[in-house]
Amino acid sequence: MKAVGFYRYLPISHQESLLDISVPDPEPKVRDLLVKIEAISVNPVDTKIRAPQGKVESEAQLIGWDACGVVEAVGEECEFFQPGDAVYYAGDVTRPGAYAEKQLVDERLAGRKPEQLSAAESAAMPLTTLTAWEALFERLSIEKEKEAGQSILIIGGAGGVGSIAIQLAKLAGLHVIATASRKETEVWCEKQGADVIINHKEALLPQLKEAGFGEVPYILCLADTAGHWDNLVQCIKPQGKICSIVETAKPLDLSMLQHKSASFLWEFMFTRSMYQTEDMAKQGEILNRAGELFDSGQLQATLNETLTPFGARTLREAHKKLETSEMIGKLVVKGF
Fold it and tell me: CATH no. for residue 247?
């Protein structure tokens, strides 16, 4: 089958950073679905894994963890899907990715494609929806009935995760304060439903106070955890919770949260698949529930740009766009 992969970890400007290659068709086993891919989304995790380093692989590396397609075959123990079913998923970062015509994914990590979304719109949503859902409802333990009327600060509201996190937080009844630093990102955050927009390039607490909020009980950090740390500590309410998805190159001073008895939590969407946790199937359940919300119009797809056709040149262009750190919403590649 056709695929896009790499052997060397190179700058995306290098012609060999991503290559058009041919690899054998994978064969489904146990609970695997063999999916014929219709569209894929490109995420920051793709660029981080491909980032330059002095290592050469003996086998082609296939990345990409957002896809929509049709089940072509199933493993002998599959229970949830059968050939012909349309699915969407983010998959497992420890297995070959979606930059290919076909891919294997554990059925417990997949959801049924939303009927009202196109393949491209569906491919844009799994990774960010799972990340935002887990962060809000599992890490921060937000409950709709209990937390209605509370406020949440979302750092980096216009990115892929921020875009759907704003929508989910609004569905939970929260007042959403999102950060943005450009006019176009402010407009995008407002479109997703944010109640207030503040600038993350300026001190945050004075802006929160000016907007009538002050300290907030929940913060979701989606950009530069270490760079925003002082702001996060200042803005969190006593006994509040901070969740971040962004790794940091230097230690965070957690003792700064001690006097507020505040909590800091990590969200990593691949934890369940990476460690084969007992609740792996929760991700499929989340995607199915999210699919219902997309179909009912309570959630909107955050696809903002589509590139064609599928191939190394197009994916190099997609990576370049993500590496500017100025992407708004989600970017999808389709057209095999």
Answer: 3.40.50.720
| Number of compact structural domains in the chain | 2
Instruction: For 252-261, write each residue's pLDDT tens digit.
Output: 999 999 999 9
In this structure, the dihedral spanned by the alpha carbons of residues 309, 328, 266 and 280, taken in order and rounded to 10 degrees, is -40
Residues 153 and 255 in one domain: yes
pTM here is 0.97
Residue-wise pLDDT for 259-268, tens only, equals 999 999 999 9
User: 177: domain range?
Assistant: 129-266
- For 263, counting Cβ atoms within 10 Å of its Cβ (0-12 exposed, 13-18 middle, 19+ buried), the class is middle
Task: Say what the pLDDT of residue 145 is.
Answer: 66
DSSP 14-55: STTSSEEEE-PPP---TTEEEEEEEEEEE-HHHHHHHS-EEE
Pair (147, 170) in one structural domain: yes
